[in-house]
Design brief:
By secondary structure, the chain is mainly α. 63% of the residues lie in helices and 3% in strands.
């Protein structure tokens, strides 16, 4: 009688148990290795923006910095969808413009009421005798604020689901989003009765009853902008370290695997796209009282690409990189565009090409590259999760070998 040896039992991952995702590096940026690093980064930013800037800058300087901060809000959202989700959003000017024009319409109506009129001046010049219903909706401050939050988010949700559910991605998504920005600018220009066409809306005197010509009120406005930007950074830091952040990076790197594990990549992308649209809309709404004007030139294809350039230069997959890059590019544009108006556009394009081609992680990745070159005995490597390199696909072999198991509550 012969006996057959049975091979040792092997354990296989259960398909009904914990689902495993391709994990990401623990820290998405130089200052996001843990709560302590995030608090240090936010603390430094709060001191610089809330204390140092008001004490050292005059009224014009604060207004200029406030403009940079409004544009940095758009960069925060782009960093989320592009750096973490791999979606090259080239049409964020659409949501920036929606928030800006809703705020501008409300402020124009408020100024018109203070003047004792019922219809804005440019409408009267175009022969309008009755206020359009679209304008009447945002006349109340609460409704205007709600519209700034809900309308761009809803538009992004509808467009995002329609696009991502059909698995449109890569260059096709980039071209489509850019086309939306161009179409939106053309739509605004083609409605001179509703939007004053290419001239835009300007000459605002008050915001929610506060006189914008008062220096104290403008200081408060700047502080509000700074606090909101810091709050956005805190939210994105939490998102980066959350389960949603892991899912977003997993979709970026291995979308089909995530789909086979039972997740819906289209839903994950849509949520991220909606968050980025909300950030852009808030930035646009604050841009109007800070700068004092909004026109199609601020929301078309060129501004949308300018948002991307700042994010790419700073480091699209890092936490603070998009903000710092956006502020730096905006400052350089203000200084160099006046001195070299014809050369600044070409310089912007050259910087974008050089960064994408030779430093895909942006300037923020330089620290991570330097740390990787240090010997492990001197504190190099990523063993402590403190490296500052961004989470780019293929940057670190650990990104594709480490696994994160779904929490018990989510099973």
């Amino acid at each position: 009688m012969t006996t057959t040896a049975t091979p040792p039992a092997t354990t296989t991952p259960s398909t009904t148990g914990a689902r495993k995702l391709p994990s990401v590096a623990e820290g998405p940026g130089v200052w996001t290795t843990g709560p302590r690093g995030a608090l240090i980064g936010l603390g430094i930013g709060a001191v610089l923006l809330l204390v140092v800037a008001p004490l050292t800058l005059g009224g014009f300087g604060l207004d200029l910095l406030g403009r940079y901060l409004c544009m940095a809000m758009v960069a925060v959202g782009i960093g989320l969808v592009w750096g973490r989700g791999g979606m090259l959003a080239m049409g964020q000017g659409v949501y920036f413009g929606l928030g800006a024009y809703i705020m501008a319409m409300h402020m124009t109506l408020a100024d018109t009421t203070l003047e004792g009129e019922s219809i804005p001046t440019f409408m009267r010049q175009n022969g309008v005798e009755r206020l359009p219903e679209l304008w009447g909706i945002v006349q109340h401050p609460v409704i205007a604020v709600a519209a700034i939050i809900l309308v761009p988010t809803a538009v992004a949700g509808l467009l995002g689901w329609a696009i991502f559910s059909r698995r449109v991605k890569g260059a096709y998504f980039a071209i489509l989003s850019q086309a939306l920005a161009a179409a939106f600018a053309v739509l605004i220009i083609g409605q001179p009765v509703l939007t004053n066409g290419s001239n835009g809306l300007s000459n605002f005197q008050s915001l929610f009853g506060w006189d914008l010509d008062d220096s104290g009120n403008r200081l408060v406005l700047f502080l509000v902008v700074a606090v909101i930007l810091l709050a956005m950074l805190a939210v994105t830091w939490q998102l980066y370290r959350s389960r949603f952040g892991e899912l977003l990076v997993a979709v970026r790197d291995q979308e089909e695997r995530v789909r086979f594990l039972g997740y819906d990549p289209a839903l994950i992308k849509t949520v991220a796209y909606m968050i980025a649209a909300l950030f852009a809309a808030i930035g646009g709404a604050l841009f109007v009282p800070v700068v004092g004007i909004i026109s199609p030139a601020d929301i078309g294809v060129v501004p949308s690409i300018a948002f991307l350039i700042g994010v790419a230069i700073g480091g699209r997959a890092t936490w603070l990189g998009p903000v710092l890059g956006s502020i730096a590019v905006s400052f350089a544009g203000t200084q160099l565009a006046s001195a070299f108006p014809s050369a600044w556009v070409y310089l912007q394009g050259l910087l974008f090409v050089l960064v994408i081609g030779f430093l895909p992680g942006g300037l923020a990745s330089v620290i991570g590259l330097l740390r990787r070159r240090r010997p492990e005995g001197r504190g190099g490597g990523r063993g402590d999760g403190s490296a500052g390199a961004p989470d780019e696909p293929g940057d670190d072999p650990q990104d594709t070998t480490r696994e994160a198991t779904e929490p018990e509550a989510a099973r």
